[in-house]
Amino acid sequence: MEPISVCIVGAGEYTVGYVPTAHGAASDKPAGVVALTCFELRRQGLVDRIVLCDMYGRRMPEVRATVQRKIADVYDGLDTCLECFPEDDVDQEATAYLRALDTMSPGDAVIIFVPDDLHASVAVAAAERRLHVLLAKPAVKTLDEHRQVLDAVAATGVLACVEFHKRWDIMYSDARNRARQLGPFSHFSALMTQPKQQLDTFRLWAGLRSDISYYLNSHHIDLHSWMVGRSSRPERVVAMAATGVAEQKLGRPCEDTISLMVQWRNGADGSYGTALYTASWVAAKGDCHTQQGFFYMGQKGEMRVDQAHRGYSGASDTEGYASYNPLYMRYTPDANGRFAGQSGYGFMSIAAFLKAAGDLNRGVTSLGELRRRGELAMMVDSLPVTAILHAGRLSLDKGAPVRILYDGTAWRNADRGKVDGVVTDDGDRSSSDDWTVPIGLEVEAGADTSGNGDGDGDGDGDGDGGDGSASGRALDGASGPCP
Ligand SMILES: NC(=O)c1ccc[n+]([C@@H]2O[C@H](COP(=O)([O-])OP(=O)(O)OC[C@H]3O[C@@H](n4cnc5c(N)ncnc54)[C@H](O)[C@@H]3O)[C@@H](O)[C@H]2O)c1
To answer: Domains (ranges, CATH) in the chain?
Structure first.
């Protein structure tokens, strides 16, 4: 089997466990996830070259020293060689990734873990070079960016996915399958929080270039969308935020906690569902880095998962009491000193993407087959997630509810046969892509059109409505669609 080469863009917490703050990398990913996974896959013969790219060349010696200390010195048998961009004597080069991508060959893979507002441009550059793309969540920030990536990917036929690793958590994927037996969707709620130190790690972009909803709500919005498939769609979003801690810590506007309340509509009978996604980065330090879980209610039953507490805890003189989750990343080497985390969902998510990319290169699978299987979070199916996150940001900025538009129409029960195609037993539509493909957003009338609904400054979200959106309508004051 021909190994695949990988370019990792972003040399930070998630890729290599490098965080130049007093706190360092989070306790649930101390050695990062992406590079370690790629080193293990290289040991298995699936990965060849590994290129690491950031914008700060002078940091690279420290990054490589981190990799040496946290990975090479810890695990036997891993080749941790990295080709780095930019060169060690370069202060800053924001487009070094273009040079790095130019060293790759068509069919290689790019894994993107840079601040959210850069995802789209790096992904488009990668797709244009015929490289398969795995984007950190949130894939992108706006529907317009999402379409730019889809266009670039469609033009070259590469695979583009979002790294939603919770899909490989065995309880989450089981819940996804069980949801189909619980009747039409009724309610979903998720809470995901991380301690305040995360704001130090993300000091350069938190509240400026992205927010806590994009960062953490994205996980459970994807999970929920994946659970309901095409049987339900999000139609209306109202967002609210708590403030106080982050603003004081960072000295600028930044939400502490964001809740998105979303109205969903079921295709089979037109009934409604509701969802509440809440994310925070001002939690107190607790027994684990991330408190997380969800509650799902269908019209015929319900499920809940506490993803933070797996019935495995311990205590040590240095760390105190802790809840462990080796189901995510298992860092403790085995008795032979080898990496032993091949079954962790953090590992599996990246491995599954690279395997799919390799299979595509060999012609043993197709994009259509991967989409039908539905395991990978393919960009082409992820528009509802982007629509909810983008609508949430707009709702905060405008101080009003935001509607998600579908082909300019509301749900039409009477026309369903014509509009939506075949309805299968579980309400899924086999030929009804349009029914769940958002084409724009519309801020409801009565909005605060000053653009400071909440005084936040993520440098985006508002004012990006005028437009050229697929709906062809322009943003007109208090009410208008956004791409
Ligand atoms: N940290 C996590 O637990 C985690 C988990 C899943 C997804 N993510 C996502 O990962 C992304 C950020 O990565 P992180 O968490 O490792 O954050 P981070 O801040 O530790 O690292 C981001 C890196 O990107 C680099 N960067 C900035 N601009 C660049 C450019 N123009 N070219 C190349 N590199 C550039 C920064 O220098 C930094 O090293 C975000 O989209 C975030 O939502 C993070």
So the answer is: 4-166+342-378 (3.40.50.720), 170-311+382-482 (3.30.360.10)
